[in-house]
Predict the 3D structure of the following.
Amino acid sequence: MTPEIIRALVALVVCICIGVLSYHLHAREHNKLNPRMIPWIIIAMACLATGFMLVVHLVNLLGVETGGRR
């Protein structure tokens, strides 16, 4: 395994952990009248998008052509 693949896998695991944590914090019960100050669902969606880009990057590192080059 090359260092690029290892770094991409570590980044993907970190992104998944942060995404799961932020979605859990968004989904917990909120009974207070004050709004939440941190938009957890936006952080979770950003982690989802970043994770998808990391998966595509990993596939490219493994040698599969994902771009539509002519």
Q: What stands out?
A: The helical segments are 3-27, 40-61. Residues 3-27 form the longest helix (25 residues). Residues 60 and 68 are 13 Å apart (CA to CA). The radius of gyration is 16 Å.
